[in-house]
Amino acid sequence: MEVPKKGYMSKLDVVNTCPPEAKEKKEGVKYSKAEKITYYSKGTKVNRKMNVILPPDYTTEKKYPVLYYLHGIFNNEDGLLEDGMGTIEIYNNLVKEGKAKEMIIILPDTYAPADGVGVPPSFDPEHVAGYDNFINELINDIMPYVEKHYSVAKGRENTALAGFSMGGRNTLYIGFTHPELFGYLGAFSPAPGVFPIEGEHEGLMKPEELKVKDGKEEPIVKMISVGTKDFVVTNNPETYHNALKDNNEEHIWFTVPGAMHDSDAVSAGYYNFIQYLWKNLDKEEEKEEKENEEKEEETAGPGFEFPDGPLPEWDAPVVMEVPKKGYMSKLEVVNTCPPEAKEKKEGVKYSKAEKITYYSKGTKVNRKMNVILPPDYTTEKKYPVLYYLHGIFNNEDGLLEDGMGTIEIYNNLVKEGKAKEMIIILPDTYAPADGVGVPPSFDPEHVAGYDNFINELINDIMPYVEKHYSVAKGRENTALAGFSMGGRNTLYIGFTHPELFGYLGAFSPAPGVFPIEGEHEGLMKPEELKVKDGKEEPIVKMISVGTKDFVVTNNPETYHNALKDNNEEHIWFTVPGAMHDSDAVSAGYYNFIQYLWKNLDKEEEKDDKKDDDEEVEDAEEVEDEESDEKEVEVGTEGVEEEDSMEEDTNEEDEKEEKDKEEDTDEEDEKEEKKEKDKEEDDKKEEKPDQTNGEFPETQIPDWNAPVVMEVPKKGYMSKLDVVNTCPPEAKEKKEGVKYSKAEKITYYSKGTKVNRKMNVILPPDYTTEKKYPVLYYLHGILNNEDGLLEDGMGTIEIYNNLVKEGKAKEMIIILPNTYAPADGVGVEPGFTQEHFDGYDNFINELINDIMPYVEKHYSVAKGRENTALAGFSMGGRNTLYIGFTHPELFGYLGAFSPAPGVIPTVDALTGEHKGLMKPEDLKVKDGKPEPIVKMISVGTKDFVVSANPESYHKALKDNNEEHIWFTVPGAMHDSDAVSAGYYNFIQYLWKNLDN
C-alpha cells in the first residue's frame, strides 16, 4: 500500500479489500438500474450499445458528474455488471453512507474496431487494435452522446475514467493522453500494452511518456491496484506503478490480498476509487452550480419523434383507469407489484424455464424459445397458454432476468389462489423474414424483423406449442402480453387477430403501432386500433407504463387515448417511480395474470372433461361455439383444429342431445386410439432391434418416470451412500467457507486453428507447491463454457462446501467450450448432424489441446487416477463416448442426463443418430484399465433426453460394466438434475472414500 503523504490523495484511508457487505443490497437503500441504450457511432459507422446507471432519484433539475467505467478484453458493456462486481451496490451503499457522491456511471463496449466489424477475439495485434481505437470512440461519440442526452456536469473535475484489465490499460493510456478531459483515473489490474512488448505489441507510449505533459493539468486522483495472485496480468500493473514513480507522478498503488484476476480485485479498486471522486473528501462547501446553464432536452433515443406533441415530463402522473362494469372491473388493480410477490417462498413449488429449439418454416432457420410449465404439469390435463414477449435488442431470456419475477410472481399467485395454472411461452420476437436480419438499431430495416413476428407466432410458434404440449385451445385459453417492443406487438397482433387471443397486456409499449413521421409508416392508424365489426372483443385489454419512463415516453398514453376514442374498454395505469425497467414490467404482469382464464369469475366451475374443455353458462356456451366456428373458418396455416363443432341450432332443447353425441364420439375415438396403439406395439415387437442401418426407436418415457437407484454392491463404487437429490443447502454460500472463482482464459487451438475460451476453477488456496487432480466438466448443446456456472447449477458452491465438510478433495475444475468444429467456425446451431459434428470433434480438442494446455499452465497431478470427466446433456453424452474410448486417460466418468447419439437411435426430439459406437461397444476394451467410477443419472420428468440415459444404463448392464444408475425425483432437463449427479459424483473422486 503506497499512498501520497500530502495533497488530496492522502485524505482517504485506503483499504486493501472491499468489505463484503459493501456489495450486498441493504434495507432502506435505493438502488440504481442499468439501462442498456443503443447509439449510432459516427466513427465506426454502426449502432453500438452501452449501459447507463443513473442515480435512483435522477432529475433533470440537477447536473451530475460522470464516471466512464471500462470492462476487460473479450467482454462487453455487461461485463462490470456480473455477479460479484458490485458496481451498483457499492455505489449506492456508499452514497447512502455519505462516503460517495451521486453520479452517472457509463459502461460502454470498449471493443471499437475502426471498420465497425473487427476480427475474431484473440491477443493478436489485429484484435487489440479495436481496443486501441476506443480512445476515438469515447471522445468523439460516447461523451458527446452522454452530454446531450443526460443532465451532465461537464469539465475534467466532473469526469472520471476507470477500468479493469484491458479497461485499466486503456484508462492509463487515454487518461494521460487527455488529462484535460479526465480529472480522476483508476486502473484496476491493468493489462499489458501501454508500453512496448517485444514481438507482441509496439506499445501506445514509452514508459517515460506515462506522465502529464508540460502545461496540462494533473489528474486529481491516479490509482493502480492488482490482486496478489493475479497470474493473468502478472507484474504489468507494477511496471506502470514504477514508471509513474520514475516520472514523479504522485499516485496510489496497492495490492489486494489473495485476489486473482477477478471480481475481488475489481471491487477493491472500485470501492476505494469512487470515494475519492468529485472532491468528495474536501469538506469545504461547494460553489452553487450556475443556474443559467442550458438544460439538455431528454429524448428516448434516435428517431423517437412523435406526431402528437411534446414529450411528457420525467415525472408523469400516477393514474388508474379501470372499467366500471364487466369482467375487467372485478380485479382491484394495484399500481405496483408487491416486492414479496417476486421472492421465492417456502412451501411453493417453482417452475423451470426450459429452452427449446424449433424449426421455423417462415424464416427457414432453427430458433429458440423458453417454455415455463406448471410445476406439476401432466399430460392428463389441458393448460391455457400465455405468450409473453420481450423488448427490442433482447431475446427469449429477457423476461427471465433478475427483477422481472416472471416465474416467482406466477407460482406465488397460483399458490395463493389468485391465478390459475398455465403454460408460459417466452419466444425470440426478432423474426426477420430471411432468418438473418440486419444489425440492431431503431431503423425500419431492423424493426421489420419485429413486425414480421406476427407470422412467426401464428404460423410456427403456436402450432409447435399446441403439438408438443398439453394445451387448451381457443381464444379464451390464449393470452398475449409483452414489454416495450413486446407490448407494441401485443397491441398490433392482438387487435389484428382477436379471434386468436382473448387477453392482451401491453406493458410500457414501444412506439410503432401508429405512424411516426419520417421514421415508421406504422402498422395501423389510431382509428384502427379496435376490434373489427363481427369479431369478438378480447376479454381483457391492459396498458401500463412507469411514470419515469423516458424511453417510450408518452407512447403508451397515445395507445390508451386511441382505445378511448375507439370506445374500446380497457385498463390503463401508471407505475409510480418506475422507468423502462423491471418495476414497470412486474407491475403490469402481476395484475394481468390474475385476470387470465376467467379467474375472477367466482361461480363454481364444473369438473374438467378429459379434453379440459371448460363448461360455462348457457349464454357463454353459445357464444363460444360461434367463436370456435369462426376460428375454424379463419384458420391458420399449420394450426391443427382437432375438433370441429357441428352447426349451432340455437335451440335449447337440442343441447342435451348434442352433449350425449359428443361424449359418444369421444368414447369411439378412445377405442380407435387403443386399437391403433395395439397395432403399433405389435409392429414394434416384430421389428428387429438393429439390422442393416435400421435403428431402434427410443421411446419417450412417461412424464413421471420411476425413482430408481442402482449402486454396485461391492468395490469402490459401493462405498458412498448415493442420494437421489442434491440438498438445497449444498448449493448455498456459507459463512466460514472460502469459495473459488471461475477464471475465463483464452488459448490457441491447434486443432481448430482459432482462439478458444474455457473457465478454470482453482482451489481457494491454490499454490504451485502442490499438485491437484483435474475434473473436466462439459456443458450441454447450444451452450458454452459459462453454462455450468448458471444460477442453480452449484458448480462452485457444492465443490467448496463438500471440501470444507471433508466429503470431497481439492481439485482443479475445467469448464471448456465443447462445441469444437474442425474448421473453427461451424454451422448454424440446430439438431442437425452438421452441428453435432462440432461436438463429436471435441474428443480431439480435449485430448490434443485442452489437456496439454492445462497441464502446462497449472500445477496438475497427471494420470488417469487424477483425471475425471463429467458432463450434462450433450456433455454427458460426450463423457460416455470419450471416457470409454480413452479409459487410459480418465479414471472417473459422470454422465448427467446424457443426450442421445452415443449409440444408434431415432430420438423423438432430435431425430436420427447413426451413433458413435454400437451398444455392445460401450465398454472398456480388453487390456485397458476400467474407470474407477462410472455414473449415469437423469430427472424423472426429463422429456428432453427421454429414455436415452436408460438406454446407456442398459447397454452398460448388458456389457457387464459395473456402474451407478439413478433418477432424480421431479427433475426435468434442468439444474436439479445436474446438481444431483454432480453432488454425488465429486464425493467419489480421487479415491476420497478410501479411508
TrEMBL record:
Signal peptide: none annotated. It comes from the Eukaryota. It holds the Pfam family Esterase. Residues 610-631, 638-670 have a biased composition (Acidic residues). InterPro entries: AB_hydrolase_fold, Esterase-like, Mycobacterial_A85_antigen. GO terms for molecular function: acyltransferase activity, transferring groups other than amino-acyl groups; hydrolase activity. Residues 285-307, 603-703 are annotated as: Disordered. Keywords: Hydrolase. PANTHER family: DIACYLGLYCEROL ACYLTRANSFERASE_MYCOLYLTRANSFERASE AG85A, ENTEROCHELIN ESTERASE-RELATED. This is Alpha/beta-hydrolase. It comes from Neocallimastix californiae.
